[in-house]
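Consider the following input, taken from an annotated entry for L-cysteine desulfhydrase Cds1 (Arthrobacter oryzae).
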Amino acid sequence: MNTAHQQDRAWADEAVRRINAESNRSADTHLYSMPLPAHWGVQLYLKDESTHRTGSLKHRLARSLFLFGLVNGWIREGTTIVEASSGSTAVSEAYFAQLLGLPFIAVMTRTTSREKIALIEQFGGSCHLVDHASEVYAAAADLASSTGGHYMDQFTYAERATDWRGNNNIAESIFGQLALEEHPVPHWVVVGAGTGGTSATIGRYLRYHRHPTRLAVVDPENSAFYPGWLASQSDGGTLAAGTAPAAPAAGLPSRIEGIGRPRMEPSFVPAVIDHMIRVPDAASVAAMRHLREHAGLHAGPSTGTNLWGVWQLIAEMVAEGRRGSIVTLICDAGDRYAGNYYNAEWLAAHGLDPEPHEATLREFFDRGVWPA
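Applying the prediction step yields:
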């Protein structure tokens, strides 16, 4: 083994140690029980991923992507890390790049919240802004090439960088925390899809461990995931990831940061998903605001997307007299969105009126029946 190769291995060994040590110092995220009317017979649990050091669900993904890059020999001492991200993944990757002493560049749209950009810069990263979501892929690849760096490509590698069998992934954590509950095996797990990695991990875990739990994925307006999943159902579940059916609404970018994509991403695995629900963007905002009023939990809009789907599934369980539990995620904290989704002027400027959907939620909680 030559000296340069030995030095590369020694640096990579130390990098893996640092990342594993960071994980070892970290406690698991909380699983909250949300108060619901007792006569409904349904328990709702919220896995609060906002309590990670970098404030979101993407902390897990960033850790896995760095380890994946290191063990594959793609990340070396001095490598510039480049990522295409709408914000939260970039925040988490900036943190891990700083931990390893590596430069980091995030490629994102100009509409990304200022709060997220500030967090990326706080962790030593820099931001490269583009006009449209469809431009981030090529821009990130070009930057990685021009800097001699590594394009992390979360949209390709998210589904393979995490061990879906267990190894303290999010699914194993959820089931461990539910062990002493009245209904320890949930009827549904509900998540959104940005890369598709979380739904792929949970869906595979459920099948591997032979749980009867069903996986529901919620999807915002304009995203290609929902029509892609529908196409996969008619095609026997074999639609290839990375291919797109007819683009919804001309492939417009999602207005809900962190989830929804203008194309089917390689990490999105339709065959492990039991049910999908398309959620209006204004309904995501309404459910996000309702969570704060009802439970005092301050979350971002992708959490609202999760909850809009959750409330419909709970209404079905109540109507069927089915007792059990449902689990969903708090993806990140609401303080990252003070200037947009919690700002009435910003909502009006973007044509988002959550009030009719808030009325739907009030009626649901009054009657226990989802309005027709």
